[in-house]
Design a protein that fits this description.
Length: 116
């Protein structure tokens, strides 16, 4: 099993920035890709960004140019730098190991609230 612990959420004004972190532990060798999902009230879950072990990245259209995903394999940590935040970015953000794969683990989530 994989344990994921997120941190870094909070309240920020529109146009501001936040950086989320996620530390993985447990069966680390089973992790290839890492990703960040978000779930906003009344909306479907959205895969915001993902990054492979080789550092290839993918982003949802809604965050391209504003969010940057990165990972430090030596620290078993994945980051999500969020710039130019908008009120519609308000959601609970979850870290995921091997997003979309047959065995996927999620963290408990961290709340991001963007005020207008």
């Amino acid at each position: 099993q994989v344990q994921l612990v997120e941190s870094g959420g909070g309240l920020v004004q529109a146009g501001g920035s936040l950086r989320l972190s996620c530390v993985a532990s447990g069966s680390i060798l089973s992790i290839n890709a890492m990703g960040w999902y978000r779930r906003a009230p009344g909306k479907q879950r959205e895969l915001v960004a993902s990054i492979s072990r080789g550092l290839s990245t993918n982003y949802a259209d809604s965050v391209k140019g504003r969010f940057t995903i990165s990972r430090d394999n030596t620290k078993n940590t994945v980051y999500l730098q969020m710039n130019s935040l908008k009120p519609e970015d308000t959601a609970v953000y979850h870290c995921s190991s091997n997003p979309g794969g047959p065995v996927e683990y999620w963290g408990q989530g961290t709340q991001v609230t963007v005020s207008s």
